[in-house]
Amino acid sequence: MEGTEKKSLFSAVQPSGAVTIGNYIGAIRNFVKLQEEYSCIYAVADLHAITVKQEPAALRRNTLGLMALFIACGIDPEKCVLFVQSHVPAHAELAWVLNTVAYPGELSRMTQFKDKSAKHAENVNMGLMDYPVLMAADILLYQAALVPVGADQKQHLELTRDLAIRFNNRYGDTFTVPDGYIPKGSGARIMSLADPSRKMSKSDENPNGFVTMDDDRDTVIRKFKRAVTDSDTEVRFDPEHKPGVSNLLTVYCAFTGKGTEEAEREFAGRGYGDFKLAVGETVADALAPVQAEKARLLADKAYLSDVIAKGADRAFRIARKTLSKVYRKVGFYRGE
Ligand code: ATP
Ligand code: LTN
Predict the structure, then answer these.
(1) pLDDT tens digit sequence for 20-72
(2) For ligand 1, atom 5, which residue shows the shortest CA distance?
(3) What residues contact 301, with CB distance under 8 A and at least 6 apart?
């Protein structure tokens, strides 16, 4: 019924390596939370992933692994559209059209483009610069009202809004202008365990900086035990003066559902050793059932293939409508 229809929501994660607890807390956790309230569409962004070098066999493996992880984390493929980005050609097609309303100046100013260009100096390619235009195409194709992401994607969302508004102004109302859904507070940006001044990143050369959703219990506990804190002994949430401890508190609260004050009280007078061990054990306990479910799903290839094929089909049908509208608006000849 008109008016009671759920609004659309879109997000994606790149299959560019092991998914970290930062990706989970900043994004995937909200994918699960929002699936009742919105009509949700989630993609494995393989087209985005190849903007930095990927080993083809690893990309294939990570794509299937990420699909299994989405479901293992609680995303219901019956309620949501789950698909692989490259299976729906409309993403690349709309990105081409949006390129004609995007300016090289605004793309070269993007923080992620500058960071990744510096990090992959041997492979600064057009795809890396065009990354946010493809991301805009992802979102706008599904007329998404909401886009759950971590804080690092805020700038790309702003650009998506700008491109949507620019296109709508030039060609008439075509796209929904989306809003971001970024976790409030420090959950939007989980920091590296090895250097709490930097974002936790799966592409960090130091594996002690991140915890992945696949890390086994001993690895998780070891990484938290080693986490950089400070010379003080008080477990207190104070991101400015105690970034390491505050980051661990954020992780602890995300996995227990507790508030920071409650967690501070729990660890009052207990010292960092105790605290770090408790955080490590909590995370390991939370990851165990997800890992078991992911392994079970990966062993059931027929089921996963079916989810992926159905998802592509459903995504294709929605995306095709928007793309037809866009082609009509820009004046492509579609027959009389
Ligand atoms: P890389 O760190 O290798 O650049 P990435 O993890 O940032 O990659 P994606 O896999 O595409 O890139 O990120 C998926 C989602 O996870 C995005 O919504 C992103 O904002 C979020 N995210 C990534 N890192 C963090 C973090 N440290 N804290 C919170 N959210 C994060
Ligand atoms: N660039 C995102 C991944 C991504 C995405 C999207 C997120 C690709 N397309 C569309 C939201 C909406 C990242 O997190 N690095």
Answers:
(1) 999 999 999 999 999 999 999 999 999 999 999 999 999 999 999 999 999 99
(2) 201
(3) none
